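Quick bug: adal output formatted oddly.
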Amino acid sequence: MPKVELHAHLNGSISEETLIKLIAKKPTDQQEMLQKLTTHIGDGHNRTLKECFEMFKMVHQIVNDHESIYEATCDVIDDFANDGVVYLELRSTPREIPEAGVTQASYVETILQAIQDKSSTLQQIETFDPKRKPIIVRYIAAIDRRNSVEHAMQTVDIAIRMKKTGLVVGVDLSGDGSVNDARELYTVLEKALAHGLKLTLHLSEVDGLVAETSRLLDLPPQRIGHGTFIHPNFGGTEELLLKTRKLNIPLELCPTSNVKGQVTPSYDKHHFYSWYQLEHPVVICTDDKGVFATDLSTEYQIMQKTFNLTDKMIQSLAYLSIDYIFESDSVKDRLRRYFEGWQQLNQ
Ligand code: 6MZ
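Here's what came back:
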């Protein structure tokens, strides 16, 4: 089934295979140490979310120069295309790596180069053809909330500057929700909006962020990452629910991430269904398909099985996700025609 992926962090999405390949290219004295890093959570296993954030830092030790950033981005795009993803919004936090000559700007340029080299043209998203696996890729500049306000402003300025490439579509706020108060980033995020960038914010991924979430919803963002603790059934409040509903802000939901990161006790207790029943827009996503050892097809299958959804319901979820991409109406129309082509062949 063709799909769109709207919530994927680059460094969390790198497969074990790619990381092994990247380690093999490092100086021999580093290889043994890098091979010992734990970068994936297999099925039936889980970690605390804090431990997951440590795993991202381990991946960062492997993806630590222009070459590895480029190669990792290319491989992640290939992985998504092979899983039937036709439109991907990939997000990543621009990282300075002084010892490798990487600046925030060159970090983003490297990713954009990989996107340019790997992305299909819009013309290739025309009629569905099972033999081809086209993919359109866009970039979202991520702000890690553990960094300073100045760092976040630099990220937004780079995104604004590179928007003219047509590949940079938005800004994300992510990172460990228990670190810092994201209300301090309000004006930075406002600037992104003022320059025509879209916003997707990790809101209430963890408990205890009601005041912060309420304030950031005032921006408002065009999409919400996770929103695990927004709905009152899941530790949120009526006010947050009403605000989210009134603004009709789509939620990007990442079931395996939430379960393996111990934010949600089990799939059947995932907040997906409460929003789905309200007919509130939701998009199924992977978050970090590498670290959480999953892919988008698996996430759809898990939701289908857990909540007894029919094939039609699942297909409709995937199709409606097109409405929430950070791209123009003409790109949306093209994707819709492509999905409809698949539906006609699979009725
Ligand atoms: C919040 C997350 C995340 O940016 O280096 N990230 N932030 N919640 C999550 N749920 C599990 N998963 C990943 O990719 C890794 C970075 O993405 C964010 C974190 O800031 C992490 O360091 P990039 O490509």
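Actually, after a second look the formatting is fine. The chain is about 45% helix and 15% strand. Closing.
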